[in-house]
Specification:
Number of helices of chain A: 15
Helix content of chain B: over 70%
Largest sheet of chain B: 2 strands, antiparallel
Distance between the termini of chain B: 47 Å
Strand content of chain A: under 5%
Structural class of chain A: mainly alpha
Number of strands of chain B: 2
Strand order of the largest sheet of chain B: 1-2
CATH architecture of chain B: Orthogonal Bundle
Structural class of chain B: mainly alpha
Shape of chain A: globular
Radius of gyration of chain B: 19 Å
Number of domains of chain B: 1
CATH topology of chain A: ABC transporter involved in vitamin B12 uptake, BtuC
Oligomer: heterotrimer
Shape of chain B: globular
Largest sheet of chain A: 2 strands, antiparallel
Chains: A mainly alpha (333), B mainly alpha (289), C alpha/beta (242)
Helix content of chain A: over 70%
Number of helices of chain B: 11
Order of helices and strands of chain A: HHHHHHEHHHHEHHHHH
Number of domains of chain A: 1
CATH architecture of chain A: Orthogonal Bundle
Radius of gyration of chain A: 20 Å
CATH class of chain B: Mainly Alpha
CATH class of chain A: Mainly Alpha
């Protein structure tokens, strides 16, 4: 973490401090709507970072991360709705179950040598399989969805994640901040270097004594556990879960766009990506509404075009390009 | 009892032929160009709407309109490969993936704006006619569509087996460097392959209208279906794609009948997972050297 | 001298085709040992069996008295046998230093210690001033040395080199010979070379083994081996008269 700071030059440090302060003070001036957008951005920073660890650093392209969001959310919400177990406690089984799924998928893939596109399809298959399964789990609402009831009396119970917009904003801020710090630390750790070696060349990594299977398992475990925490947040923030919405492949895609657009395998890429994409989406909704184009498709089309343009022009992501342009990173000598 | 089962299986086989044709297109693109076409199902849905419009506006039967649609799709595929996609051949998977997800999003939402989110029944005149063969009751539409799909597949097999271009494309798939060394114009062959791949989807999509109502949201499901079939059948094996298409068609029909229609694709995914783990080269694929 | 690596009667068949036929030799601690032979002699297969990429069909390989045949490549490396690849495989998107740090991390958990060790190794291999360059933008001779640096950073007892001279120009070959000699003398690392370039082998090796069609045809000190009639007819003769 200290080295993260040391790697930035004076200008980068100033920008970082100003940005963090601005985020902390935002609720003073922000409207409720703006705060909800910022919360969404921070949520995507968090889950994007979790995925970035696995893909950006360890090079394993999971296209089914919605699975872990959904599992985390459903487990915690189910425990709360049925047994009154609060999310601070419920997050533990939520994480454990999601990580167990992650471990199983990882074990299958890495033991049996399922790589590249095949690995991606395996992750999709598991997410879709689970989605259809959840459509048929009665106690969790099935296809009709699971709802966390709104109770006036519990509104201030922040320890049960029952709070208002302001509470969730700061919670998201803490989660996102922690994810960034964790990534920065991992990126410079021994494990992080093993991941990068595997990402770059698995055979060469093995020849340098790296236990590839173990390192990959750690990646999938950490990533799925982290993502599940995001799922708990999601469930208690929105108070409803539908299999068709949380496990959908489009959810997995939504979650990975930020890191890809921002810059894979970088600490700040997922942050920049979320801050670019989410407001862009909101802006598009506003503009199309104003223009009387009341079609939800118009926004998405523009989104699709932006994606194509970004991946065509800056395939490495916006952050590496931006930080070079603005001179935010120290040139190591 | 047996006759019910027989009906279910026959229906699965007929649907499976359409799936197989759609997957054949992906198999060509994935196997030859090595491009992860994540917009495959979306192209199929575009073709469904094209056939739908041609039928509604001018009464053109999808069995005929599939020909012009396939032709147009070929041109579109050729042009796409030449312009946008060629820059992505050989780039990392995730970059191809993002590009094609972009394409898919544009396609689905374009359809959404033009046609709205709801299913639009095509109402073919012979939609409810059926053949009675002993205990079997077979929908005419499915038979027509399946026969048409088989015809397209046969034409495709013939193309790859007996024409110069077809043989050259197979050479590209087997040994890219070798193909380039003997002077084959790989870029043009890639464009032709992508065109053929899309033509397959175009034909399959047009025929699909006969058995399913077009909905924009079908796109991702078809994309997954196509990938599932290609992998189960074995990458680079055209016969494998067809066989796996049948397998998936039948397994969906049986699962839909036995358990619940909404759970039918669980079986496809379970099958995909099993194949990935136990026989990653696919049922008919060659073991990698 | 004690035996560091003991290869005893090792053989490998591919679909009935004998690639390596009961090869035995011993590499003593501290020496430079070379395996030579024409293309298709089974050198690479032998190399891959020692490195853990292939499992022998027969015989055994012992390193410091412990059997290593059949272990995975990473397990072999952790026991102190590091290798290079004939076609170099640096981690392309990482800097030269990070490439070497990854090697250094094998027996070090502290990042600072690993970084210091990596810089020392880079200095030994004349790569110190290129340490912040991304590996993919290095020239071939630099990449070859990076490959060596990365392997060396794992603190191996035995260094397996798969044709490190291939593709190098004569001046670069001399530089590499010089570096290898330094590594051997100053760090005490034992080296097993698989090599085509005879000039380098003659300059470096204390002992050598000649393979032909998978079988050993001569073994001993370089001066003796090059006088061997079998070697001259099967290998050197063919090379000398192009």
């Amino acid at each position: 973490m200290i080295s993260l700071w040391r790697d930035m030059n004076r200008r980068g440090q100033v920008v970082l401090v100003v940005a963090v302060l601005a985020m902390l003070l935002a609720p003073v001036v922000a409207t409720r709507y703006l705060l909800s957008v910022l919360t969404l951005i921070l949520y995507f920073v968090y889950v994007g970072q979790a995925w970035n660890l696995m893909m950006g650093y360890a090079g394993q392209l999971s296209l089914g991360h919605a699975l872990y969001v959904g599992l985390g959310g459903y487990v915690a919400a189910g425990l709360w709705v049925h047994f009154g177990i609060g999310p601070w406690l419920g997050v533990i089984p939520a994480v454990a179950i999601a990580a167990a799924f992650g471990a199983f998928i990882g074990w299958l893939a890495f033991r049996f040598g399922i790589e590249g596109v095949y690995f991606s399809l395996l992750t999709i298959a598991f997410a879709e399989f689970t989605r259809i399964g959840f459509d048929h789990i009665g106690p969790l609402g099935g296809a009709g969805g699971l709802f966390i009831p709104y109770q006036e009396s519990r509104l201030g119970e922040w320890w049960n994640l029952r709070g208002g917009q302001l509470f969730f904003y700061y919670l998201a801020f803490v989660l996102a901040g922690a994810a960034v710090l964790l990534t920065a630390w991992l990126a410079r750790s021994r494990l992080g270097h093993q991941w990068m070696a595997i990402r770059e060349d698995e055979t060469a990594a093995r020849a340098l004594g790296i236990d590839v299977f173990r390192a990959k398992m750690k990646a999938v475990l950490i990533s799925s556990a982290m993502t599940a925490v995001g799922g708990v947040f999601y469930a208690f923030y929105y108070n409803n879960l539908f299999p068709a919405q949380v496990f959908e492949m489009s959810r997995s895609i939504e979650l990975i766009l930020g890191p890809i657009v921002g810059g894979l395998g970088t600490v700040f890429g997922p942050v920049i990506g979320a801050f670019v994409l989410t407001p862009l989406g909101e802006l598009l909704i506003a503009v199309t509404d104003k223009a009387g184009l009341n079609a939800p498709g118009a926004k998405a089309i523009f989104f699709g075009l932006v994606l194509m343009i970004i991946i065509y022009l800056v395939p490495g992501g916006v952050w590496p390009w931006l930080s070079r342009r603005l001179g935010l990173v120290r040139r190591r000598s | 009892m047996l006759s019910i089962w027989l009906n279910v299986v026959v229906q699965g086989v007929l649907t499976g032929l359409l799936y197989g044709l759609m997957a054949l297109g992906l198999s060509a693109i994935f196997g030859v160009v090595r491009l992860v076409n994540f917009a495959h199902g979306e192209f199929a849905v575009v073709a469904m709407y094209a056939a739908f419009v041609l039928f509604r506006a001018w009464g053109v039967d999808p069995l005929w309109s599939m020909l012009p649609i396939a032709a147009v799709f070929f041109v579109v595929g050729f042009a796409l490969q030449r312009t946008l996609i060629n820059a992505f051949v050989g780039r990392p998977d995730y970059q191809q993936f993002i590009l094609l997800v972009g394409v898919a999003i544009v396609l689905v939402n374009g359809l959404l704006i033009v046609f709205g989110p709801d299913a639009q029944p095509a109402n073919l005149p012979y939609a409810f006619d059926s053949y009675l063969v002993g205990p079997l009751i077979i929908d005419k539409v499915r038979v027509y569509a399946a026969v048409a799909a088989l015809a397209v597949c046969a034409a495709l097999f013939g193309f790859f087996r007996f024409t110069r271009t077809g043989t050259a494309i197979r050479a590209c798939a087997d040994n890219l460097v070798g193909a380039a060394v003997v002077g084959l114009d790989v870029r043009r062959l890639y464009a032709v392959t992508f065109g053929i791949g899309l033509a397959c989807v175009g034909a399959a999509g047009a025929l699909m209208v006969t058995i399913a109502d077009p909905v924009p949201g079908l796109g991702p499901a078809y994309t997954l279906l196509a990938f599932t079939i290609v992998i189960i059948g074995g990458l680079g094996s055209m016969a494998g794609a067809l066989v796996a298409g049948l397998l998936i068609g039948v397994s969906e029909a049986v699962a839909g009948f036995l358990i619940a229609p909404s759970m039918k694709s669980m079986f496809s995914f379970a099958l995909l997972i099993a194949v990935l783990v136990l026989r990653p080269q696919g049922l008919l694929g060659k073991k990698p050297a | 001298m004690t035996a560091l690596l003991q290869v005893s009667g090792v053989g490998k068949r591919f679909r009935g085709l004998v690639a390596v036929d009961r090869v035995s030799f011993t590499v003593a601690a501290g020496e430079i040992f070379a395996v030579i032979g024409p293309n298709g002699a089974g050198k690479t297969t032998l190399f891959n069996m020692i490195a853990g990429v292939l499992k022998p069909n027969q015989g055994s390989i012992a390193f410091r008295g412990e059997r290593i045949d059949g272990l995975t490549p990473d397990a072999v490396c952790r026991r102190g046998v590091a290798r290079t690849f004939q076609i170099v495989r640096p981690f392309p998107a990482l800097t030269v230093e990070d490439n070497v740090v990854i090697g250094a991390l094998l027996h070090r958990t502290d990042m600072e210690a690993a970084r210091r060790h990596a810089r020392d190794v880079l200095a030994t291999l004349d790569l110190h001033d290129k340490r912040d360059i991304v590996a993919s933008s290095l020239t071939l001779p630099d990449r070859k040395r990076l490959e060596l640096a990365r392997a060396l950073a794992t603190d191996p007892k035995l260094l397996l080199l798969d044709e490190v001279m291939a593709g190098l120009r004569p001046t670069e070959t001399d530089r590499m010979v010089d570096i290898l000699r330094r590594i051997n003398r100053e760090m005490g690392t034992t080296i097993l070379l698989i090599e085509h370039v005879m000039r380098a082998v003659m300059a470096l090796a204390g002992h050598m083994l000649v393979l032909h069609h998978g079988a050993p045809i001569a073994q001993g000190k370089p001066e003796e081996v090059v006088r061997d009639a079998k070697v001259i007819s099967s290998y050197l003769g063919a090379e000398a008269a192009p």
